[in-house]
What we know:
Helices cover 74% and strands 0% of the residues. It is mostly helical. It has two domains: 11-19 and 40-219, Growth Hormone, Chain: A; 230-237 and 275-466, MFS general substrate transporter like domains (Growth Hormone, Chain: A, Up-down Bundle). Helix 4 packs parallel to helix 6. GO terms for molecular function: transmembrane transporter activity. It is a multi-pass membrane protein. InterPro entries: MFS, MFS_dom, MFS_trans_sf, Tet-R_TetA/multi-R_MdtG-like.
Amino acid sequence: MELGGRRGPGAAPGLAAAARKPRQEPRPGAEAGAPGAVRARRLLLGLYLVGFLDLFGVSMVVPLLSLHVKSLGASPTVAGIVGSCYGILQLFSSTVVGCWSDVVGRRSSLLVCILFSALGYLILGASTNVFLFALARVPVGIFKHTLSISRALLSDLVTEKERPLVIGQFNTASSMGFILGPMIGGYLTELDGGFYLTAVICFSVFVLNAGLIWLFPWSEVKLNSTKNGLPLDKNHALLGERHCEVREATKPRGPPVSGRTARLPWGDVVAALRGLKRLIFSEMWDIFLMRLLMGVAVMLYHSNFVLALEERFGVRPKMTGYLISYSSALGALAGFALGPILRLYKHNSRAVLLHSSALTFTLLLLYSTAHTVGVVVFSSTLLSFTTAIGRTCITDLQLTVGGAQASGTLIGMGQSVTAVARVIAPLLSGLAQEVSPCGPPSLGAALALVAIIIMSLKRPRYGGDGSDKVKSD
């Protein structure tokens, strides 16, 4: 796949194209494709439900982890080390698991990731000492990539034109789970044995998700990306001198022919990662740098939000919590606004990303210099929209430039970059806060400005003609 409207080898029509063709080309037997399109639509809705349940279960438990590890007798230093280990595991596993999903197929990788994550939360609920608590975080740190693989599957199902909207709707459904989960988890933890009960419910939610994945109508849907090669340069060299193909979800299950065949997927993963390394450092380094800078900028804004409002305006933490919930709800609703915005920009996701990043920079600067709570509420309201839209567009830009057929690998790499941002942001926040409570958001605004400059300088390669043309339907 190339930018500028040229199609890559073997480009296949997406879900919407399958739904529209009976109307565009009325002919005998055209109606036969309609039931398949309906079932494919059900698969999309099923993935939205999987995203909702995933974050619903996780958000019931995660806010309670610090309280639980403290009740086990861990010191703040030990608790911090355990939390850092989870982040480090995510950093290294995101790309590998994403590439693995490209090789073995979305269904198998989703099932494995969901079941191992469920096991981790079950062990977490049964943890009676710090060792078991740390052990429980290992399978979750390695395999908790359900949302990333689901986004990759969504990109397989739809055309480039539909991809930002569908991923935005998926993010909205997931965010709804994150809004409801903490409330239910906070209520349950006040009961006798509340943390154990919450962890078991989370385990049950993940098992339910695995059942949904197993029952999805995989045989009715053909993935877009199964026949596309990944262009690494102008000559379209392929990953590792070969196609890193996504295996068809409909491939018949059966025992491997030999031990050598069973080990083959891991050889494909290694070859794909080597090819991806060349791709990133030669063609996509600036996209991931943008993601890193904008990620750190937004995390700096959130890092001392509660403390800064208390020190600057005397706002109590309870009221700040309401403001955070309000902003989170608006961020979840941003997915519904993405469709009209993309139509306004003629589906040019690069332009949407550039303008949303510019607005994020302006709002961070406004928040850091605010003199009234009203200005803070105004900036927080708009920031919830711009950051949600920016996250969706940067993912779409990765897939547009890198090739959607390696979507699992590319999305996993993006999650690894975000994990790096999570490591860097607390350190920078602490240093900036030594200067002023406004230091972290001011530094975030500066980093956002650097990202905007990079984005503007690289405009010609992203389609500087003003139209990121999409895959032909």
